[in-house]
Amino acid sequence: MAPRSASSSPSWVPAPRRADARRNRVLVMQAARSAFEEAGLAVPLGEIARRAGVGAGTVYRHFPSKEALFRATVVDRVRLFTDTARELATAEQPGVVFFRYLAAVVRLSVRNKGLCDALEGNFEPSPGVEEGFRAALCVLLERAQQAGAVRKDVAIDDVMALLLGCLSMEQRRGPGVAPGRMTALACDSLRPGRRVTKLPQNPRATRNETVCAVCGGPVAAARTGRPARYCGGACRQKAHRERARARAGSEVVLEAEV
After folding, report:
1. Per-block mean pLDDT, blocks of 10 residues, the chain (258 long)
2. For residues 190 and 203, is the Cβ–Cβ distance under 8 A?
3. From CA 38, how far away is CA 73, in angstroms rounded?
4. Domain boundaries of the chain, sorted by first residue
5. Pick from 6, 48, 166, 223: CA 20 to 30 A from residue 110's CA?
6. DSSP 119-184
7. Can you state the percent helix, strand and coil of the chain, rounding each to 5?
8. How far is CA 17 from CA 20, 52, 54, 147, in A?
């Protein structure tokens, strides 16, 4: 019997299947991460499959339930935080690194209910995941304290509590408060002496240009240039005449005083 050629051998078939499975799992995780961040556990599994470009059966082959998929996305993000902290454990300027790391964790977690629950301890994503995060963060804290950037009397439990407080404050900040401002204020409580963070600037209050300044009617948004103040030419001319009369009146008053 002639030897079987390499092209007819079935040994090459499983490898592409394994590669496809890995690719599909990555797609499902990416889609689930964004879907859960937007809608939490209320998002249908079919919507996750649609975003990933796969069938619902493919999702179930990797994750037995939607809750298991949700848990996997949280584990993935917490482990990313942990790995990042470990990579920063030997970085220069440990004080700067510590505070920037805290701000980044808050910024990336504030809109993710699963992450907030995991950090609060209400949702244990996987055995040892929360402990690993605490241990890695503790190393950053100790290095920052040794560098004189953090008060010596601060413990890791204090930092974890402050981290949760920052999440809560950022979630509840008003529309006139800049993102990160509350976190900067809270983190300054960890600093020794008078070393404080320059606060992010709150957005400036803007004049309401959606209503005509003369008649109160709606104003179409201007495509270019300054925002429109009047609904049309008639109101613009009326406003111009009123300003002219006001200027004339002020000139009369000035002449009388002279």
Report:
1. 47 53 86 80 85 87 86 86 94 95 90 67 67 93 95 90 88 84 91 71 56 69 63 77 60 42
2. no
3. 13
4. 21-64, 71-190, 210-256
5. 48
6. HHTSS--STTHHHHHHHHHHHHHHHHHHTTSS-TT--HHHHHHHHHHHHHHHHH--TTS-TTHHHH
7. 65, 0, 35
8. 5, 18, 15, 52
Say what the pLDDT of residue 96 is: 95
> Which amino acid, one-letter code, is at 167?
L
pLDDT the model gives residue 139: 96
What is the secondary structure of 36-89 as a DSSP string?
HHHHGGGS-HHHHHHHHTS-HHHHHHH-SSHHHHHHHHHHHHHHHHHHHHHHGG
Options 3.60.15.10, 3.60.20.40, 1.10.10.60, 3.40.50.360; CATH for 21-64 is: 1.10.10.60
**Nearest Cα to Cα of residue 136 among 78, 86, 79:** 86
Query: pTM of the full predicted structure?
Result: 0.62
Q: Copy the structure tokens of residue 165.
A: 């407080």
Q: What is the pLDDT of residue 209?
A: 52
| Size of the chain, expressed as the number of residues it contains | 258
